[in-house]
Write a structure and sequence with these properties.
single chain; about 325 residues; mainly beta; Jelly Rolls; 7-stranded antiparallel beta sheet; 1 helix; globular; metal-binding
């Protein structure tokens, strides 16, 4: 998914200087952003107070939206570099096309994982016809310096592994959780898991104390370590935890995001993750003028132009504002 904000602002993040080394309970409220003509998303990362959780650098939650009489998601071809995109659905379908020639319909609880590496472009759209409801999350993972120029690739995985307990199913989307490992390619120590809780469930999820964590609420009524978290909000949990208490008042859907704190400072602007203003500037020029990001074939419409760069140089700084 693209950042479609026509007044794109830089996000400076990464580095270990602002990692919370002990458990905390920091509730992050979303910013509402219009994505195309018919989809509004709740943006949790980057947030006013916190920019990253491990290598997770961008989190949008959308829906559930009734799109029975609407076009649904319509995101024109746009570029990415230096990151991975993670597409995750609870309802509906998204049709993915990219400049590698990939054409894949992504359905609920299937992993669509695109590694941009040095350069890729893609589009996302609700297929015709499509299901009545659309509900999901789009996330980005920053690639470390050693791997950020890898060849681009797209992966689609079904039948993901799960960790279970009474009233809890944790499907491992990326990385590893309690010995269960996702088949998706990861470049840093990381975890992403979809948590399904039944009404009345109380469970404790094992965690790695060296990771920092956050939990995104997708649906239902749940308490995370005693804190009620409403759908569309996210609770940042810090580091130093060996387990996470969960309780559900109703059937609930959550996403656990975590990882080793990202050591490098990065610059994130529009749909690019880089390390300097010059690198971002060159990527923008290459998208507007050159063949670097390739061509997405089959999308009915033009590609997305890049916004103007800000008048001041982009500089990598810390993880929080």
């Amino acid at each position: 998914m693209s950042n479609l904000d026509r007044q794109a602002t830089p996000s400076v993040c990464g580095g270990r200087g602002f990692v919370v080394a002990e458990p905390v309970r920091e509730l992050l409220t979303p910013r509402h952003v219009q994505l195309g003509e018919s989809t509004e998303v709740r943006r949790l990362l980057p947030n006013l107070g916190r920019r990253m959780v491990g290598a997770w650098a961008f989190v949008d939650h959308y829906g559930p939206d009734d799109i029975a009489d609407e076009p649904g998601m319509q995101v024109p071809p746009h570029p990415h570099m230096g990151l991975q995109t993670v597409s995750w659905l609870h309802e509906g379908e998204v049709l993915h096309r990219d400049s590698l020639g990939s054409l894949q319909q992504i359905r609920p609880r299937e992993l669509g994982l695109m590694t941009s590496g040095r350069a890729i472009s893609h589009s996302e759209e609700s297929p015709k016809p499509h299901a009545r409801f659309l509900h999901g999350a789009q996330l980005w993972v920053a690639l470390p310096g050693s791997d950020r120029h890898v060849e681009p690739r797209f992966e689609h995985h079904t039948g993901l592994p799960a960790v279970t307990a009474p009233g809890l199913t944790a499907t491992v989307i990326l990385g590893e959780l309690d010995g269960a490992a996702s088949p998706g390619t990861a470049y840093t120590p990381i975890v992403g898991a979809d948590l399904t809780l039944t009404a009345g469930a109380e469970a404790r999820l094992p965690l790695d104390p060296d990771f920092e964590y956050a939990v995104l609420s997708m649906s239902g009524e749940a308490e995370i370590d005693g804190v009620p978290v409403l759908p569309g909000s996210m609770l940042y949990l810090g580091c130093g935890r060996t387990e996470l208490p969960l309780r559900a008042a109703s059937d609930a859907g959550l996403m656990l995001l975590g990882g080793e704190p990202f050591a490098e400072e990065i610059v994130m602007w529009w749909n690019f993750v880089g390390r300097s203003h010059e690198e971002i500037e060159q990527a923008r020029q290459d998208w507007m003028e050159g063949p670097r990001f390739g061509e997405v074939k089959g999308y009915d419409g033009g590609r997305l132009p890049a916004p103007e760069l800000p008048p001041v140089a982009l500089k990598p700084r810390g993880r929080v504002r």
